[in-house]
């Protein structure tokens, strides 16, 4: 747990920026960036005319351009309108579920949320490749996803994905722990990591656009907690 004037536990020390950069250098080669830009330009101006099922189709197709060689494609679904959540990733059936009303937001907002939820899938799959048993116990993914992960164990000397995979597994397991200890780990190791990858990806695709984070940075979160803020108000 984060406490004022106490050193941060090692498992909550923020992942260094160069780890995220090295990861994205592997995941987003220049060709993938130009492919996704072309796809986005085809749909961006028409976005508000599409109905929900076309939007879901468009988002699903982005997976093929960006992530197909890295993790199994989640199904994209729409759920009943919810006010608090734009979308959620569900490892149990490997799906991204969008709140129906959120799909009416601008293309950029919906795209960013889709990216964020996709990175949950990406990191969960890395955790499964890192440690299939432990990650299965925590995430309960479908058996076909586990079988794919089993075929592609993560090389333990591949430190960049191993770091992200370990932290994601830790934060996912800690989420259920009572009180601040679990939430600090969940926010820093899962949500803030995912959001940092999302922000950096967005900036690589649109170098001149503004990005509004949906979670604070790790440094801002820790500062808020050191000043006595509750986890939920610091993220
Ligand atoms: Zn999230």
Element order, helices and strands?
Answer: HHHEEEHHHHHHH
Low-confidence stretches: none
- Inertia-based shape: globular
How far the N terminus sits from the C terminus, by CA atoms, comes to 15 Å
Profile the largest sheet. Answer: 3 strands, mixed
Which kinds of small molecule does this entry bind, naming each only once? zinc ion
What can you tell me about this protein's structure?
This protein is mainly alpha-helical. The protein contains ten helices and three strands. It has a three-stranded mixed beta sheet, covered by helices on one side. A hairpin with a 4-residue loop joins β2 (87-90) and β3. α4 (107-130) crosses α6 (143-151). It is globular, with a radius of gyration of 18 Å. The two termini are 15 Å apart. The model has no long low-confidence stretch (mean pLDDT 94).
Concise summary:
The mean pLDDT is 94. The chain is mainly alpha-helical and 235 residues long.
Looking at this protein, list some descriptive labels.
10 helices; mainly alpha; globular; about 240 residues; three-stranded mixed beta sheet; single chain; binds zinc ion; about 5% strand
Detail the topology: elements first, then pairings.
Blueprint: H1 17-27, H2 30-43, H3 52-66, E1 75-79, E2 87-90, E3 95-99, H4 107-130, H5 132-139, H6 143-151, H7 159-174, H8 180-205, H9 218-226, H10 231-234
Zinc ion is lined by residues 116, 120, 191, 194.
């Amino acid at each position: 747990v984060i406490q004022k004037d106490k050193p941060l536990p090692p498992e909550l020390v923020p992942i260094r920026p160069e780890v995220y950069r090295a990861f994205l250098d592997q995941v987003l080669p220049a060709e993938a960036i130009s492919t996704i830009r072309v796809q986005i330009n085809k749909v961006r101006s028409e976005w508000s005319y599409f109905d929900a099922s076309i939007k879901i189709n468009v988002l699903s197709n982005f997976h093929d351009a960006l992530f197909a060689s890295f993790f199994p494609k989640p199904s994209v679904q729409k759920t009943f309108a919810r006010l608090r959540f734009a979308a959620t990733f569900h490892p149990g059936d490997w799906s991204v579920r969008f709140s129906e009303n959120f799909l009416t937001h601008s293309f950029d907002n919906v795209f960013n949320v889709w990216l964020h939820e996709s990175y949950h899938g990406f990191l969960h799959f890395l955790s499964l490749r890192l440690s299939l048993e432990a990650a299965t116990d925590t995430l309960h993914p479908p058996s076909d996803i586990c079988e794919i992960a089993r075929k592609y164990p993560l090389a333990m000397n591949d430190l960049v994905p191993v770091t992200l995979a370990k932290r994601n597994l830790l934060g996912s397991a800690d989420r259920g722990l009572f009180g601040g200890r679990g939430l600090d780990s969940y926010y820093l190791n899962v949500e803030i990591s995912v959001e940092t990858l999302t922000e950096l990806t967005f900036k690589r695709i649109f170098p001149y656009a503004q990005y509004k984070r949906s979670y604070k940075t790790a440094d801002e979160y820790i500062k808020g907690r050191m000043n006595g803020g509750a986890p939920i108000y610091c993220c």
